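Exercise 7 asks you to align residues with tokens for two separate proteins.
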Amino acid sequence: MRILVVNVNTTRSITDSIGRQATGAASPGTEIVPLTPSFGAESVEGNYESYLAAVAVMEAVRAHPEPFDAVIQAGYGEHGREGLQELLDVPVVDITEAAASTAQFLGRCYSVVTSLDRTVPLIEERLHVAGLSARCASVRASGLAVLDLERDEKAAVDAIAEQAARAVEDDRAEVICLGCGGMSGLTERVVERTGVPVVDGVTAAVKVAESLVGLGLSTSKVRTYAPPRPKKILNWPPPTP
């Protein structure tokens, strides 16, 4: 089984981190292929960057030369999963939805701890669209930019763990979801600080993707995610410089 794990930003060190986390979660016989988009922002922290990332991720997947069995979109709260589902005949798993759906097996309600406050509405909207918001106790911001997660890991862990603890104590969350692909690898330390299950979206997405492939299931094509209709699209893809 081969699974493409696509970073939504263009920072290769984050792609590498996501790839290591996905590989660690994969079953024997599952090959993880990390991909970095060829264009887009170095980090995705708002709507403009998210829509740009959606196109970049779709193009990265379309350009991949080898066959694959599933795709993971490794961005929390980002746009584009629906477009991938139209384009592909294999399962597409978004880490936002994988984490939240997994959390609901583990407790009555969950909270998400993410990066900046401006990303909170994107995550709330994604959970609502996916039908996963009813059991979401809160979405909390750590106040760290995505790239800050790499620059000072100790400060990142402290900020994320603090908000996770507040979600458990103040919002009555029973499970925590790490709300950024760049937070991969922080699970155990947040568990130590909170005492509740902590779900990493990349890890959860790998197991969901493996399960769907193993069951022989993929996206329905009868209506919402039917393939795009053939038509002329002007000036796309753009010419290579």
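Second protein for Exercise 7:
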Amino acid sequence: MDDLVTDDKRRPDSADRRLMAVNEANWDARTPVHTASDFYGLADEAQALDPARWFAPYEWEDLGELAGRDLVHLQCHLGTETLVLAGKGARATGLDLSGASVAAARELAARQESGPMAGTRYVQANVYDAVEALGEARFDVVYTGKGALCYLPDLDRWAAVVAGLLRPGGMLYLAEFHPLLNSLGPTPTAEAGTPLVLRHDYLAGRGAIRRDATYTYTDGPPVEGARESVEWMHGLGEVVTALTGAGLVIELLREDEELPFPRWPEMVRTESGRWRLPDAAPRIPLLFALRARRPAA
């Protein structure tokens, strides 16, 4: 077992468990909408599992060689990125809260009859229970992000889980939507179109935020059933402090103005195939990437 954290630091309280159960039900309800969506494109597996669809070039540079490395993807949802990481040679495991999402991920993985993706496995568990759910398994790489941290109430506990999953010398790679992105929203005006303004908190401190999740970030019909989700705001300083508090060493922190999809209608496509705000808008970070390592000794 790891020597950086204790089990009690990894376990959320009962109130947080109840709120995360709301998200579990919502993600179960989202899953059939997402599996049928053009956003995920599962009808065309070559498109759905195209590395350029999910990863920026710098992510591969930051991750380095993955062949032969044990990797766990936390909060993996449908497991598309997990399979792409496996396609790079990692022995990949995906973990997600939603049983429906894990079932869909396993179905997609089962269709990969040969090659490096064929051995990918998926586990259903709350991320705070990941160390216990994965048993004795420890990993060279923990990968997570792109809409993951906002569903976690406590980043100190999350960081303790990450540290507990890593072998000595192993690394966390987090590629996540920037807290500034989550704080901005459009405010329509007749004179100026849809300027972006600060509409939501950047920092934590006000507790859980309940949201109407009748429609999700993908195309498709409204969600049937559980239509509420719960989110928590986390600033960049909170992320870094949580990881260093768990004994990890920050090696790299990037801020990026591009997203893998257009968050707002006015965004323009770049030569990389990703999306950014138009030239007339200020250059601001919309995504960040962080690499942290568990010390080897």
